[in-house]
Design a protein that fits this description.
The protein contains 5 helices and 7 strands. By secondary structure, it is an alpha+beta fold. Strands 1-2-3-4-5-7-6 form a 7-stranded mixed sheet, sandwiched between helices.
């Protein structure tokens, strides 16, 4: 059994029945909606969404194309993409971190022995924003992390105006983040991943 098929929260979600041809036979179509880990082949689509989402706001991207490929090669299991009709519409990319708080090195490193998942970026395609997809994807991602034995908590850093969004997703603020990018300052936030044994026992993880 592959690692992907063992994770119930990543199995495709079919939102409508398969189409049938006029003769009554089923026609092969892409799933209406699917969640899966990303691969290096998805890197360009990821970067196009990220670039549009972030450059207009902050002038830079959390991850550049080579960094996206870097993390999707090292730890694809810590990513999650939402696809509709085969097209990527939203994604999260993470890596493992081995310290209590984030530091500047966390922006580029993956620490395989770490127990904290550093969420580098969450982005939604501009055509499907304001539909609640960001919070749905984050919920799915946190469920996915509960199936990974190494993950104990999720960490992220965000600008102040995004704190209420992540609080609604269950994150708590830890205070100012040590990491800076240019003139930007961030709040560091965390979400426990362990401590949900009952949920894991009943989720098939």
């Amino acid at each position: 059994m592959s690692a992907l098929s063992a994770l119930p929260f990543l199995k495709p979600v079919h939102l409508r029945p398969p189409r049938r041809s006029p003769g009554g036979q089923r026609r092969h179509t892409l799933p209406a909606s699917e969640f899966r880990c990303l691969s290096p082949e998805d890197a360009v689509s990821v970067f196009e969404i990220e670039r549009e989402a972030f450059i207009s706001v902050s002038g830079d991207c959390p991850l550049h194309l080579d960094e996206i490929r870097h993390f999707l090669n090292l730890c694809p299991e810590l990513s999650l993409g939402w696809f509709e009709e085969g097209r990527l519409v939203a994604f999260i990319i993470g890596s493992l971190w081995d310290q209590e708080r984030l530091s500047q090195a966390a922006l580029t490193l993956h620490k395989p022995q770490g127990s904290a998942v550093h969420i580098h970026v969450l982005a939604v395609h501009r055509t499907v924003r304001q539909q609640g997809k960001g919070s749905i994807l984050m919920w799915r991602y946190l469920q996915h992390l509960r199936c990974l034995p190494s993950a104990r908590r999720a960490l992220l850093m965000c600008e102040h105006f995004l704190v209420p969004f992540y609080q609604k997703c269950g994150f708590e603020a830890l205070g100012p983040c040590e990491v800076t990018v240019g003139d930007l300052a961030f709040v560091e936030m965390q979400h426990p991943v362990r401590g949900h044994a009952f949920m894991r026992r009943n989720s098939g993880c």
